[in-house]
Design goal:
Elements (H helix, E strand, L loop, with lengths): L5 E9 L4 H15 L5 E8 L6 E8 L2 H17 L4 E10 L11
Antiparallel strand pairs: 1-3, 1-4, 2-3
Helix pairs in contact: 1-2
């Protein structure tokens, strides 16, 4: 994997009745991101017509920033065990073009 920027798009499905339990945990991940200079963008959203389907979009400066982020959120992720029907699977992407996010 090339070093930076690293884009990760993920899609997960919350277990029926567990979405409301996941939301505060997901928000705490975003709050923790504010301490990480290398996590440039991190957005979590759910589908309008299928609110149990949750998408993530993250841009890391480089692999070091990604590794720091994953280390920082590991305790939160363990709290999510058993709340996912389908765990959020990451897709690693290479930037082509964007508005609102600057790539090298």
């Amino acid at each position: 994997m090339a070093d930076g920027p690293i884009i990760v798009v993920s899609r997960g499905v919350a277990k029926y009745g567990r979405r409301d339990d996941l939301i505060p945990l997901m928000r705490s991940i975003i709050e923790r991101d504010s301490t990480e200079d290398g996590t440039l963008v991190h957005a979590l959203q759910s589908e309008r017509d299928a609110p149990n389907v949750i998408w993530g979009y993250t841009v890391y400066r480089d692999t070091e920033a990604r590794d720091i982020h994953w280390k920082n959120i590991a305790p939160i992720l363990t709290k999510m065990d058993g709340m996912w029907e389908q765990w959020a699977y990451p897709h690693f992407c290479t930037p082509i073009a964007a508005k609102g996010v600057q790539f090298k």
